[in-house]
Specification:
With 171 residues, the protein is an all-alpha fold. It is 46% helix and 0% strand. The longest helix has 24 residues, at 113-136.
Length: 171
């Protein structure tokens, strides 16, 4: 469940506090990571969230699609999902109608760059773990574009770089 943390400046103060050496998020990060991450960090800790499922199911049974893939490569992404489900697309000419309202409807100021950089640094090793899980379990698209993005030469954040937070056309 996604909840708004009140006003932007309150969110930024919360993040600052969490990312201090004695902050709950930093303590979780430095620990053994067996307990749940802090409340507003849990939903972005993808590797942590999927690990219990990988104990019960083969990782290749999962499919991971990023918003970047859906926004910039809609036809290829839908074809990939269809193939994974064993449901080939039969009509590809009307993919333009496949516009989801996935934009953030809450109007707010952009996050301060310093806070954004701290969050990126915090999540970088967690994102690398997620990238390895997706790659090693063949969960994602496997074409030349995605192979390059998932290579060891690209940082994990390349998986979602160029996503549009508030797309003009709904995707």
């Amino acid at each position: 469940i996604v909840q708004k943390v009140q006003k932007e400046q309150t969110l930024e103060k919360y993040v600052e506090q969490q990312l201090k050496d004695d902050g709950e998020a930093m303590q979780w990060f430095k620990g053994n990571q067996t307990e749940d991450p802090p409340k507003y960090f849990k939903g972005s800790s993808y590797a942590f969230l999927i690990k219990p499922w990988l104990k019960r199911f083969n990782g290749s049974q999962f499919t991971v699609v990023t918003l970047r893939q859906y926004q910039t490569r809609t036809a290829e992404t839908l074809k990939f999902i269809g193939q994974r489900l064993g449901m080939e697309l039969t009509d590809k000419k009307e993919l333009g109608e496949h516009i989801f309202a996935n934009e953030n409807k809450n109007k707010h100021l952009p996050m301060k760059e310093a806070i954004k950089m701290k969050l990126e640094k915090y999540f970088e090793p967690l994102d690398e773990e997620w990238k390895a899980i997706v790659r090693d379990n063949n969960m994602g698209m496997d074409d030349p574009i995605e192979k390059l993005i998932m290579s060891k030469f690209k940082p994990a954040r390349a998986m979602w770089e160029h996503e549009s937070i508030s797309p003009k056309a709904g995707r």
